[in-house]
Amino acid sequence: MALSDACSEFVSEVDEAARRLAAAVHWYAAPGMPLSYGEEIDALRRACAKVDASPLDPEALAELLRLAVAVLRYLDTPLDVPQL
């Protein structure tokens, strides 16, 4: 196995993770969900679509990761979690 094979596997795993995140975003954006999200769900949806369209675009991947971390830190996180 060459280094490029390992890199290809990594990119494939990231692409698959982005697809799973896109499916979750779609589910949480559905009407009637108990938690109502606003601009952040739309931003995640757009970022997932960009990664889906160009899975090798490092800027699209970085934006999706940045948004996912922001949601992790600032949404749905109990206020008593000191590290967040």
Provide tags for this entry.
84 residues; single chain; mainly alpha
Multimerization state: single chain
The largest sheet is: none
- The count of DSSP E runs of length 2 or more, i.e. the number of strands, is 0
Distance between the termini: 39 Å
Beta-strand level of the residues, as a percent range? under 5%
Question: How does the helix and strand content classify structurally?
Answer: mainly alpha
Q: Uncertain runs with pLDDT below 50, 5 residues or more?
A: none
Mean pLDDT: 86
Helix content: 55-70%
Rg estimate, integer Å: 15 Å
How would you characterize this protein structure?
This protein has 84 residues and is mostly helical. It has one domain. The chain has helices spanning 3-28, 39-53, 58-74. The mean pLDDT is 86.
How are the SSEs ordered, and which strands pair?
Elements: H1 3-28, H2 39-53, H3 58-74
Helix pairs in contact: 1-2, 2-3
Summarize the structure.
This protein is an all-alpha fold.
